[in-house]
């Protein structure tokens, strides 16, 4: 039996993309992606997941400062609202969704 020797081969790997950057690019690519992301966050039943999803969508579409300009809401308040412990008023939530190209709808459970 011949002894085995380790062979080293060099492979050309594509440069990696950070998960967050890839997620934000996917969210910005199409409104249906953002809608699916929000739906998945809602399915967890954790309001913090929804706030985190909305923040990611805001970041994907130019950031919180741009969202503040489009909604007329205070930038600092948006940072608090879109934190995991955020608890927005319905009017703020509707403004955030509209600026993100989304709308609120209700379906039977």
The pLDDT mean sits at: 90
Q: Based on DSSP secondary structure assignment, what is the total number of beta strands?
A: 0
**What portion of residues belong to β-strands?**
under 5%
* Low-pLDDT ranges: none
The helix-and-strand class reads mainly alpha
The number of helical runs is: 6
Features:
mainly alpha; 0% strand; elongated; 109 residues; single chain
Characterise this structure.
The chain is mainly α and 109 residues long. The chain has one domain. It has helices at residues 19-29, 31-43, 47-60, 64-71, 75-81, 90-99. α2 runs antiparallel to α3. The longest helix has 14 residues, at 47-60. It is elongated, with a radius of gyration of 20 Å. The protein starts with 18 loop residues before the first helix and ends in a 10-residue tail after the last helix. The model has no long low-confidence stretch (mean pLDDT 90).
